[in-house]
Here is the input.
Amino acid sequence: MRIISDVKTDVNMREVTFEISAEALEAACERVYQRQKKDIMIKGFRKGKAPRKMVEKIYGEEVFFEDAVNSLLPAELDQMMTELQLTLVDRPAIELVSCTKAEGAVCKATCITKPEVTLGAYKGIHAPMTVREVTDADIDQQIEIFRQRQARIVEVTDRAAAMGDEVKINFEGFIDDVAFEGGKGEEYPLRLGSGQFIPGFEDQIVGHSIGEQFDITVTFPENYGDDRFAGKEAVFKIELLGISMQELPEADDELAKDVSEFDTMEALRADIREKLTETAQKQAENQFENSVFDTLIAATDAVVPSVMYERRISQMVNEFEQNLRRQYADMKLSDYLEFTGMTEQQMRDTYEEQARKEVLLRLALEKIADLENIEVTDEELADHLQDFAARVGVPVEVVKAQVPMSEFKLDLRVTKAVELVKSNAVVDNDMAQTEEAPAEETAEAADAE
Here is the structure.
């Protein structure tokens, strides 16, 4: 291969024209002919027996050029990138400028190159790390969850229905004295206060006793999903068949024995406090790390090709679909989009900001790895390959055959860069003080929660 010209046409854009020799083109054409000749049929020859010269005489000497050039391009492009020291972020667009047996092929590659990155300070980044204090109320909340799990359902016969009870009802709905489709149910279980039915329905069951038959009147919301009912008044005829309630166990030593390996409530509460404290510490560390990297991103300057963002968004969408399939019995992305009424482009738009941050952070970390001369040992690479192969459930040899080792090495270098930035970051809780909202806003937020 010979480079004819290399022109920078825009930021991160190069137009490289290169030549494939006549000898290389001829050898590639012969390989294509040998591979395809078994399917070639020409009058006067048995299938697969037509000489190459005869094929080219009938169909033109260029008959094998396209496949021959395509077979040569991967190696030619690798050589081009090595010679020009280019790092590309996308497959180059190739134009075949000319191609003849006598002169070989001339190709023009339009290349999108990895952007130049300018970093701010990446050592000594300040960020707050506030560990939330675990309170008795937090522990009480966990104990209440255990009580709910151990609750017994008991029938209620000596009082009227109350909010929080589960009732069993027959019901039928009418609009303008006409029963409507979907408005009828028999022996239907309903927990009062669950909000399962439209506003006002459950409230009007409260106070009624088993065996009572009564009417309740409700109005469908204006934004109700079915236009036939939106904003309309409906009357439901109700028959209350049964009432039951949860009977919660006491928060005592017996409960502790039932829900844990501990013999006393005191020991269970101590264990809950320890676990909640560990969780609070991890959350604080994660927030600290996110703040550090947000600062790093903000101080990083690069003109990033849009294709890098689009590729990351595509990866995020694919990851979302894979999670859908795992969680919901092979549910497809198209099914999810239809269910939510969202287009794929709208979904991609929701990932745009996160993709931009992730791409810019990755570029910053790769630059740090270069500046710090971070390297990966053969032993580290081997350990990483073993771990990766075990996670995906394939032999190491398969991984090596399918994924370039350069990608694994780069991932490991980036991981080391992450640790370098984190280990040099500084906890600065004075920043949290200055970033806090005014007292009035803080109080309003607390009330909202």
